[in-house]
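ugh ok fine here u go
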Amino acid sequence: MQDDPRDHFKNLEEMIKNLIERSLDQTGSKPVAYGFKIIITGAGTPGIPPEVLTPSRNASEPVAEVNRIGNEVKVTVELPGTTSEQINLSFEGNTLIIKAESEKRNYKSSAELPPVDQTNISGSFRNGVLEVTFNSMPDESGSDELNPE
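structure:
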């Protein structure tokens, strides 16, 4: 007789619920979520990078997700409470710097990019989510870390 995989998720949900309730009882405050990302490379197994295991970002430093889709590289980051006019993008080498300043919140985030055409950029900002798209360029090393094939 095999266990139903859904039972494992129900057990996990119950454990998380109990941990949150105990946390609220002891601290009297709500828990803070940091977010995470999983990187899949051609050279190894999927996993959470070690620098993400220790939260180094706070609420004003949202996590920027970088995805290669075909010949494009898309950067997605949540910036709730801001407008598109309050967002400023700049580059430091191959790192995209994202800043947003509103009356209530200031955000700063960065995203390490694979080789992209920095002069050909498009983007959208809807419901507090910024999506920036670049054309990808061939990687000099010959490896494609973001899109293993």
